[in-house]
């Protein structure tokens, strides 16, 4: 496997790598140019939305907004509880699919008709304000598909700085399809992960070892203890002049390398039996399976498909995301008590999972179907996908509150419901039913 040596660590025959082939020292910024691109200052001066409270719990710490997210986000610029306080933003905006999405009950949920430069500017306006709302150690995840991910990556580089790009995550979104088109099946979508700065909240995620994978990776068993281990080098790339560059047991580190530990520490490790000596006298370090936290999660996620079998629990909102996907993101990039924001909250997946993980949240959506679905989710939880099929067969009308076995943890009471739209009663039905199941 070829490994590049970072320019700063290169000790080749030219001491100034910037001068090689006349390459300039600093890369030039790249930006996307299109008609209708507003100045950043103009976007930050968006008139804030006036909000009206439709319902509030005693604490009302979490907030669900019904309205266009741009003026609502702009109003947070003047809100000390939100500006620079958001630890994590996750957004799953429309993907520019030029489609109308309907829920399982066949009601229109939302339009995804913006395309091209109009779409890019729509997302950019929101990203510019979101950056201001993020805490200095905050993170943002933007969920997209192959339609616009490349364009929005460039916009995110502009808004957050390319140095703050962390990952381009590929997620397997569904089971393989039987395509009749002359292309490979399309089962992936993408999540762009950026942070506001270098110093950000990060709780590394691990996958558990499967027995097969563990046996393959940790192929040796220590006779005396029965512990499974693998052998790794005791040296690392780069020349050092300190202790780790000195000989150990009469051996220098290989050319261009240094010992991973000072000779004294290597002696102690050897005394504990943690060094393996090959028949020709080469030391290797033993790394034990029982000391591993698991397999660090990489940037291809295969295990979080959206509703894909009859047993999975859902709300029935179109493009609803897998709750476990959100749990991974929320756990990795925030801590209990932190504020999580999703301004395209749809059926409320982010809000529900954030709440279950002890985070505070703000959700925004401008679709009455989305807000109604979120309220039902808070009142009654999720429903097995199979149950939707059964109900559809028995009754053409989807009941507002299906009869469910609900885990108490999914019932959520602590939030305010606010609107910025001239309210004409579109949420009354959902509110009434929600109110019926909980004394407001
Ligand atoms: C892909 S869906 C989000 C689905 C969500 N992640 C879930 O798990 O249910 C996108 C959502 O963005 C909402 N939306 C689109 N434009 C909006 C806007 N300008 N303001 C607020 N919400 C908007 C739509 O109503 C839709 O619910």
Question: What is the element layout, followed by pairings?
Answer:
Blueprint: H1 40-44, E1 52-56, E2 62-66, H2 69-76, E3 86-91, E4 99-102, E5 108-112, H3 116-133, E6 134-144, H4 149-160, E7 165-172, E8 188-195, E9 206-207, H5 211-217, E10 220-221, E11 228-232, E12 235-237, E13 257-259, H6 263-271, E14 275-277, E15 283-288, E16 295-296, E17 300-301, E18 313-314, H7 323-333, E19 339-342, H8 349-356, E20 360-365, H9 368-380, E21 383-384, H10 385-394, E22 415-419, H11 428-437
Parallel strand pairs: 2-20, 2-22, 3-6, 3-19, 7-17, 19-20
Antiparallel strand pairs: 1-22, 4-5, 6-8, 7-8, 9-16, 10-11, 11-15, 12-13, 14-15, 18-21
Helix and strand content put the structural class at: alpha/beta
Q: What CATH architecture of the domain at 40-134 and 315-437 would you give?
A: 3-Layer(aba) Sandwich
Output the CATH class name of the domain at 40-134 and 315-437.
Answer: Alpha Beta
Question: Can you list the ligands bound to this structure?
Answer: S-adenosylmethionine
Placed side by side, the strands forming the largest sheet appear as: 1-22-2-20-19-3-6-8-7-17
Care to count the β-strands?
Answer: 22
Strand content: 15-25%
CATH topology group of the domain at 40-134 and 315-437:
Rossmann fold
What value does the Rg take, in angstroms? 27 Å
Number of helices: 11
Distance between the termini: 62 Å
- Fraction of residues in H or I helices: 25-40%
Describe the biggest sheet?
10 strands, mixed
Regions with little confidence, pLDDT below 50 for 5+ residues: 390-409
**Shape designation:** globular
Mean pLDDT figure = 87
């Amino acid at each position: 496997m070829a490994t590049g040596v970072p320019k700063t660590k290169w000790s080749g025959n030219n001491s100034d790598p910037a001068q090689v082939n006349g390459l300039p020292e600093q890369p030039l910024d790249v930006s996307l140019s299109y008609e209708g691109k507003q100045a950043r200052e103009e976007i930050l001066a968006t008139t804030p939305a006036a909000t009206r409270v439709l319902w509030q719990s005693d604490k009302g710490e979490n907030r669900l907004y019904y309205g266009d997210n741009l003026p609502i986000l702009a109003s947070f610029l003047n809100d000390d509880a939100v500006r620079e306080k958001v630890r994590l933003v996750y957004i799953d905006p429309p993907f520019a699919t030029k489609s109308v999405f309907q829920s399982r009950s066949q009601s229109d949920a939302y339009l995804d008709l913006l395309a091209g430069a109009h779409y890019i500017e729509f997302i950019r306006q929101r990203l510019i304000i979101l950056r201001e709302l993020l805490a200095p150690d905050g993170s943002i995840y933007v969920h997209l598909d192959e339609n616009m991910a490349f364009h929005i990556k460039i916009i995110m580089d502009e808004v957050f700085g390319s140095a703050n790009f962390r990952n381009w995550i590929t997620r397997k979104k569904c089971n393989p399809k039987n395509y009749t088109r002359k292309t490979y099946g399309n089962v992936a979508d993408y999540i762009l992960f950026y942070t506001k700065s270098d110093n950000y909240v990060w709780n590394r995620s691990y996958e558990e070892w499967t027995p097969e994978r563990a046996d393959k990776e940790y192929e040796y068993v220590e006779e005396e203890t029965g512990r499974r281990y693998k052998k790794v080098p005791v040296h690392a790339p780069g020349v050092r002049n300190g202790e780790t560059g000195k000989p150990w047991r009469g051996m220098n580190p290989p050319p261009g390398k240094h010992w991973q530990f000072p000779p004294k520490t290597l002696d102690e490790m050897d005394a504990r039996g943690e060094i393996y000596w090959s028949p020709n006298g080469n030391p290797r370090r033993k790394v034990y399976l029982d000391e591993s936290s698991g397999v660090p999660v990489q940037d291809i996620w295969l295990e979080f498909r959206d509703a894909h079998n009859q047993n999975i629990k859902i709300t029935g909102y179109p493009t609803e995301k897998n709750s476990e996907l959100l749990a991974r993101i929320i756990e990795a990039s925030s801590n209990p008590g932190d504020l999580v924001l999703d301004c395209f909250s749809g059926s409320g997946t982010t809000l529900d999972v954030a709440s279950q993980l002890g985070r505070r949240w703000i959700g925004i959506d401008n679709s009455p179907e989305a807000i109604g679905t979120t309220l039902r989710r808070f009142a009654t939880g999720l429903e097995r996908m199979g149950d939707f099929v059964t109900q559809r067969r028995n009754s053409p009308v989807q009941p507002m509150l299906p009869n469910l076995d609900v885990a108490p943890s999914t019932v959520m009471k602590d939030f305010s419901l606010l609107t910025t739209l001239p309210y004409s009663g579109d949420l009354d039905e959902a509110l009434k039913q929600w109110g019926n199941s909980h004394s407001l």
